[in-house]
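Changelog note: in this version the structure field was regenerated for every chain. One regenerated record is shown below for reference.
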Amino acid sequence: MDILLEPFQFSFMVRALIVSVAVGIVAPVMGSYVVSRGLALMGDALSHAVLPGIAVAVLLGLSPVAGTIPTAIVMAILIGYLSRRTGFSEDTTIGILFVGLFALGLAVLSLAHGLPVRLEDILLGQVLGVSWGDVASTLGLGTLALLLLYAFHKELVFATFDPLGARVAGLNVGLLDNVLLVILALVIVIALQAVGIILVLAMLIVPAATARLLVRRFAPGMAVGALLGTVVAVAGLYISFYLNLPSGPAMTLVAVAFFALAVAARRRVLSR
């Protein structure tokens, strides 16, 4: 029992726990849509493309969140715009913007000196260093993302599994796609503090994919994904604290371990 309670004698661990649980709930819920729509590349690109926004915000003495939100939203909308205008496939456009903006962010950070944030923390996450202001912004953005997903849930599910039928029914599928991308951008901003740019896709995809192996229906799968994400976040937080590891890799390893167990269990059931 002492092992479980000891970390939370420190206020920084309490803050880290709140942020980790918020990420563990919101990211897999959003991840259910990402997995169903095959938007993994988009999620990865958005998480990397926000680096210039982080760099500019830090240089101006602002919270990194202040730079990531507009950058992620602009990136999400720009991808759809360029795909339509240039005629290139969406994954080609994503790839170009992904590497271009990520390289720009690295260049800005490398040229700046004396920054109060380390590049390693941005890339790998360091939830143990969040402030109460970060906690408040995480809870606020997380609540906003969940409310938007709830408000557009029926339309988004319809457009996800039957886009042609959604168009025939009179839904603006293009607008719904942009709404989903904006919400995805918000969720990525939330997850960045816990797992960092490089591993943000792990919290979006792995718990949601694990839930898909365990539950067939979409809505119950979201609930299972949120439960798994919470367990992953908390377990990863303990590992990060006791083994002195970055939070992102710790949470990712736990998430992948759960996925491997789910695959093994599913194979065993199907082989009977």
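Spot check on this record: The CA atoms of residues 82 and 88 lie 8 Å apart. The domain at 2-270 is CATH 1.10.3470.10 (ABC transporter involved in vitamin B12 uptake, BtuC).
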